[in-house]
Amino acid sequence: MPTHSEIYTVDPKNAEHVLKTNFSNYGKVNILIIVILYGEKWRHQQKLASYEFSSEVLRDFISVVFLANVAKLVAKVSEAATFNMKINLQELLMKCTLASIFKVGFGTELNSLSESDEIGYQFSKVFDDDNVNVYWRYMDPSWKIKRMLNIGS
């Protein structure tokens, strides 16, 4: 089908080709593998599948994501310096971190560093507001009374 394709194989070498040897050639694809194997074939397949979820692969992915978001941050700071604009560096650092964590944790671009992405901007704003509320709840021992009296945030 034009929007969907499936490949079936019983050869572990094909699975190794997709999952390990040439994984980068397959881009961002959804891979579902159902394996019914026993003995040595099972151990071989298990070893191949575990590569996808290894700490090294995760560490490499996190590095790529963080470096991409740091590049966006550097571009923002460079632009501000070029045009002698004031920026809130703490806010930009938080947005950069949030975007990176969001991509790693949920697999979705938040684009919180881009003011043109309204959803990313709104999420970042709500996230920041909630963090402030949690902070003040921790710092203010009378927050329960204020909530009962409907006073404050």
TrEMBL record:
<comment type="similarity">
    <text>Belongs to the cytochrome P450 family.</text>
</comment>
<dbReference type="InterPro" id="IPR001128">
    <property type="entry name" value="Cyt_P450"/>
</dbReference>
<dbReference type="InterPro" id="IPR036396">
    <property type="entry name" value="Cyt_P450_sf"/>
</dbReference>
<dbReference type="GO" id="GO:0004497">
    <property type="term" value="F:monooxygenase activity"/>
</dbReference>
<dbReference type="GO" id="GO:0044550">
    <property type="term" value="P:secondary metabolite biosynthetic process"/>
</dbReference>
<protein>
    <recommendedName>
        <fullName>Cytochrome P450</fullName>
    </recommendedName>
</protein>
<dbReference type="GO" id="GO:0016705">
    <property type="term" value="F:oxidoreductase activity, acting on paired donors, with incorporation or reduction of molecular oxygen"/>
</dbReference>
<dbReference type="GO" id="GO:0020037">
    <property type="term" value="F:heme binding"/>
</dbReference>
<dbReference type="GO" id="GO:0005506">
    <property type="term" value="F:iron ion binding"/>
</dbReference>
<keyword id="KW-0560">Oxidoreductase</keyword>
<dbReference type="Pfam" id="PF00067">
    <property type="entry name" value="p450"/>
</dbReference>
<keyword id="KW-0408">Iron</keyword>
<keyword id="KW-0479">Metal-binding</keyword>
